[in-house]
DNA sequence: AACTATTTTTAAGTATACTTAAAAATTTAT
DNA sequence: ATAAATTTTTAAGTATACTTAAAAATAGTT
């Protein structure tokens, strides 16, 4: 299937995970195309039996569409893991490369990469890597920093973004998958979260506190 | 530039190296497209200043086209080198993957791969890898087996093919980049070459004896 | 040199993946 | 409930990269 189709199916999959309002417009925004193009593509994918399309209704992936999405996501996260391990590249850079490489990787090569890395269950952002059958065996017990308790110490389990500025910020302050942070104060009304990392106190706004995921202990989501 | 453009420019470059008859038809055959499509593309590339096009004349790359070709070739051969080193993949498989990956690789990633491998000068087929400026510093002193002398012993310096059957044949008989072979007899009239590898005698027809390149000694083309 | 075969070019048409503009439906706000 | 705002859809059109069919030019053969 084409790059456009794979990216579209992946975007639908990811959006459906987060919200229950997966209509053309959101996908269009995500992919940087017009709403008209997204509607058009949705219709085409319905013909290919990759999703169910009904005018003005939510887009819902078929089993086939779901498999395709997971296969692309698998390749994306395996590439990220490999590039991160082998080369000194930032989280943002590995994401950018993986966004392209994911579409040009045979299942065979994906399996080789996975094997080489010891079949990792998480990528460098803390996102789970589906296995060769498209199955995610790990359960995610993490939650966003915005919902963490004052005074408690957590482990970063996921940095859910693909924004360069965010990753630069993370790199600068030691916000890294697996690292420990303490929530010193929650400013509920102003939607800000104050944390302590490496003895530095940082005040996060909502944009950042809702894409940084943490776990209470090192158990589940940390397997690196 | 698009995949189609990159593959076209690369095909022109490679053909011009071998022959002096680089017209649309040959490129069309190489890329598996119609002659009409090749002529069409040639015209478009002329507008983009990637090659010089004159009706019924040879296609000649511009400096810009040449650079693009070398950049794609560099990425191709770096990928082949990396995949060959890291994973247990055949020469044919690494070529297949590289044919796609070469178009989705940033210059930055290419440099990282090169660095990681110690800036190799040759890929696993024995083909030279251009440096980041598109320069090939090695000089190729090798020649085809069909032109080798009876009784002499040589070192395989290049396996110039992308045919699976050929690579299977090579793997089966120990014909590998860097290995030693002896030419036991040249059947000039019948265009066949008899060689001895690992104490086995093999009779090669013209198809194979003209794509296996050898060197007299281990000097130039062997730097693995 | 003339004829034939081959190659190249032109012409017309297709599929994919987009665009903008306007109509239709839905959602939100008053 | 009505009006306004937003989103979705339709319609028409574009660029890229191909196709087949036929015309034109070149290259090879007698
Ligand atoms: Mn990513
Ligand atoms: Mn992608
Ligand atoms: Mn190759
Ligand atoms: Mn290619």
UniProtKB/TrEMBL annotation, chains A, B:
This is Transcriptional regulator MntR. Signal peptide: none annotated. In the presence of manganese, represses expression of mntH and mntS. Up-regulates expression of mntP. SMART domains: HTH_DTXR. InterPro entries: DtxR_MntR_Metal-Reg, Fe-transptr_FeoA-like, Fe_dep_repressor, Fe_dep_repressor_sf, FeoA_core_dom, HTH_DTXR, Iron_dep_repressor, WH-like_DNA-bd_sf. Homodimer. Pfam families: Fe_dep_repr_C, Fe_dep_repress, FeoA. Residues 1-62 form the HTH dtxR-type domain. One of its GO terms (cellular component) is cytoplasm. GO terms for molecular function: DNA binding; DNA-binding transcription factor activity; protein dimerization activity; transition metal ion binding. Keywords: Activator, Cytoplasm, DNA-binding, Manganese, Repressor, Transcription, Transcription regulation. The keyword Transcription regulation applies.
């Amino acid at each position: 299937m084409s790059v456009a189709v794979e990216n579209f199916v992946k975007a639908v999959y990811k959006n459906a995970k987060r919200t229950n309002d997966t209509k053309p417009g959101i996908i269009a925004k995500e992919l940087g195309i017009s709403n008209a193009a997204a509607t058009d593509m949705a219709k085409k994918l319905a013909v290919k039996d990759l999703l169910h399309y009904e005018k003005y209704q939510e887009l819902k992936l078929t089993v086939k569409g779901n498999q395709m999405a997971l296969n692309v996501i698998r390749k994306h996260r395996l590439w990220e893991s490999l590039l991160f391990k082998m080369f000194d590249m930032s989280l943002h850079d590995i994401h950018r490369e993986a966004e392209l490489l994911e579409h040009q990787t045979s299942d065979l090569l994906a399996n080789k990469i996975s094997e080489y890395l010891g079949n990792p269950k998480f990528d460098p952002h803390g996102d789970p890597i589906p296995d060769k059958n498209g199955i995610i065996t790990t359960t995610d017990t993490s939650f966003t920093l915005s919902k963490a308790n004052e005074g408690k110490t957590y482990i970063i389990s996921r940095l859910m973004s693909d924004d360069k500025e965010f990753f630069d910020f993370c790199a600068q302050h030691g916000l890294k998958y697996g690292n420990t942070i303490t929530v010193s104060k929650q400013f509920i009304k102003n939607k800000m979260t104050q944390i302590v990392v490496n003895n530095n106190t940082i005040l996060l706004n909502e944009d950042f506190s809702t894409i940084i995921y943490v776990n209470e202990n090192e158990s589940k989501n940390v397997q690196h």
